[in-house]
Amino acid sequence: MKAIKIDFILKKCKGFVLIAFLFAFFSGQAQLGGSNSYQFLDLANSSRIQGLGGSNISLYDGDVNLTLSNPSLLDSLQSGSISLNYMNYVGDINYGFSSFTYHINNIGTFNAALMYANYGKFTKADETGEKTGSFVANDIAAIVGFGRRIDSMFSVGANLKFFNSIYDVYNSNGLALDLAANYHKPNSLFGASIVLKNMGMVFSKYNEKEKLPFEIQAGISQKLKHAPFRFSLTFTNLQQWDLTYDDPNAPKEFDPETFEPLPPKEPNFFDKAAGHIVIGTEFVLSKNFNIQLGYNLRRRQELKFAEKRGMVGFSGGIGFKIKKFNLNYSLASYHLAGNSHSFSITTNINSFRSKN
Hints:
Blueprint: H1 2-27, H2 47-51, E1 81-88, E2 94-104, E3 108-125, E4 131-149, E5 154-167, E6 170-183, E7 190-204, E8 215-223, E9 229-235, H3 269-274, E10 277-286, E11 289-296, H4 297-303, E12 314-322, E13 325-335, E14 338-348
Antiparallel strand pairs: 1-2, 1-14, 2-3, 3-4, 4-5, 5-6, 6-7, 7-8, 8-9, 9-10, 10-11, 11-12, 12-13, 13-14
């Protein structure tokens, strides 16, 4: 009887979820890229996602590390999974998360996670420039996720995130909600998802301008039937079409006749579209070994040097299984000054239990 009631509620919630998605879409139209706080909530939370370009929400293969980006990927087979992730970002910035997943029959699958970001130690000085000590800056978020299959092809999920930021004597906290839906037919090689991220409120602000980094993401993945390749396409920041900006430090062009500075070049359709696209490819050589490659077009547009572009925007990783542990390492190029390294390790405590 209890299971029937829950299924009835979930079916009725389909319309509510659609309304919530539409409401979030229209409410996000006024947000401008780069004007939000608490951007640590958008960091790539796992090594595998980092290797696939920094954003991926459509892979449905039992990897519990993907569920923080898309809670509708939570599945009963992940029950008992423990995950640890560490990222050496840029400079002295380090972040990571740990999680535990548990399934409750006839209700759904729950995930409890703790995410942190540490920005290192800073020198404190007064208005005259005299050093008065040092301070640290940290962000932390406690996350509870829930996912459940509605039928054989569709699943839904949500993440509730309580976050707290501490920068010296300044403190800010709030609550954010992710809503997600996934399509994946059993034994199908295709998957599609949509996620509304970081809807919520700030309880304690630094000033009156803080707001959450709301974002709409959509993604598709397709594995080839007779070849070990899986391709993913993720569309980010769909709530705003034009993400381009004028770089005040960009080299100026001058009119060859009048030598007057020319106005900045207007971004074309491709420039605007590229800011939303993340491409990921996996070489699935076996169930226990795969290689990831990713390309983040917006990252390359914004962080490359015109004189020397290098591998900015590209990333790669490797995943393998040793006995009862799944390991993943990835390397992402954010800037010519350095790369970002990330590590993930996952196991399932149920696999250690005696089968006698």
